[in-house]
Q: What sequence folds into this?
């Protein structure tokens, strides 16, 4: 039987190059080989946007457009809208009994995110427990593989723990999934920060116009120790070269730039110009496919409806099995 992929994104805005390198690229590469489900996690997005639920609907469309733009084929890949699969909520509740508060407390991703958000009115339980609902996302679709960015690894670990407990306690019906990281664990932000993130304002978005990309590239951080273009510069840890390595298909050009940078015979402007050209070459087909789908909103809607229908049918089969395994499939309900 074909192995299955489940992964997803919170629809909090358009996707950026960090999403591409971390996960989207793997999804596109593996879509022929794996039975692929991709979740637009709007309920998870609500956990810290519950005061602005109106932003979800437009963002669902934005994320769907990004998926289609990078080349996910809707004939193969099922794009599923999380809130339209209520079985996920049920499974989350069952899983809550299998996780201790102490385990959540130790979750490094959760800790980071709580720190970042600085919840002034107190930490909502919904946010605190989102790793449990993410475990439900992954297991209800019986996924073998979860392509994600590095920051999500503790979520997969948490899922594996829940699956082991469930299978031991009730019946071996759930699959222990594996995480799959992208070609780079983490793409740095344009400011040289550890990661590209909307909240840090250091992103290049997949749908950005050439002008926006140029502006971002030209203002990128480089080697802080280099004052003049004739100073020998550092290539390692320099985000401009990290991006060249990932996005510039002309390896000879990249090698030449690195050599001259180290010697101090090339200026930042030339290195950035060439990066802009490379990035633009990479983004151009994505941009035009995005525009094409954006001009056909009915078609995009159909793709989401169809993907969600198939996803929900699978979730319904799993939840039946779960109830059966937990012996809560009573005679009165049959
Ligand atoms: N937490 C993920 C993120 O913030 C999104 C997500 C929700 C997800 N459900 C998932 C990722 C299931 C992988 C599998 O990017």
A:
């Amino acid at each position: 039987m074909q192995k299955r992929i489940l992964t997803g994104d919170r629809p909090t805005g358009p996707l950026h190059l960090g999403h591409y390198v971390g996960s989207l690229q793997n999804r596109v590469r593996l879509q022929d080989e794996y039975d692929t489900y991709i979740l637009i996690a709007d309920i998870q997005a609500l956990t810290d946007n519950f005061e602005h639920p109106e932003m979800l609907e437009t963002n669902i469309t934005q994320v769907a457009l990004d998926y289609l733009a990078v080349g996910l084929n809707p004939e193969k890949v099922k794009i599923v809208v999380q809130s339209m699969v209520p079985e996920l909520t049920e499974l989350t509740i069952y899983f809550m009994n299998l996780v201790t508060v102490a385990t959540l407390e130790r979750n490094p991703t959760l800790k980071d995110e709580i720190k970042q958000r600085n919840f002034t009115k107190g930490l909502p339980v919904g946010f605190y427990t989102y790793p449990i609902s993410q475990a439900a996302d992954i297991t209800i679709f019986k996924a073998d593989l979860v392509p994600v960015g590095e920051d999500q690894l503790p979520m997969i670990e948490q899922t594996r723990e829940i699956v082991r407990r469930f299978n031991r306690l009730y019946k071996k019906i759930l699959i222990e999934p594996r995480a799959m990281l992208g070609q780079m664990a983490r793409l740095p932000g344009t400011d040289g920060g550890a990661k590209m993130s909307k909240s840090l304002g250091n992103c290049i978005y997949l749908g950005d116009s050439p002008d926006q990309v140029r502006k971002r590239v030209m203002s990128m951080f480089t080697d802080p120790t280099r004052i003049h273009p004739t100073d020998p510069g550092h290539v390692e840890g320099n985000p401009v070269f990290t991006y060249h390595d990932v996005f510039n298909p002309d390896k000879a050009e990249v090698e030449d730039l690195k050599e001259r940078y180290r010697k101090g015979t090339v200026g930042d402007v030339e290195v950035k110009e060439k990066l802009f050209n490379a990035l633009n070459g990479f983004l151009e087909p994505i941009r035009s496919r995005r525009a094409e789908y954006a001009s056909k909103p009915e078609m995009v809607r159909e793709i989401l409806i169809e993907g969600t229908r198939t996803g929900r049918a699978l979730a319904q089969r799993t939840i039946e099995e779960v109830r059966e395994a937990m012996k809560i499939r009573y005679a009165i309900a049959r």
Observations:
- The two ends are 30 Å apart (CA to CA).
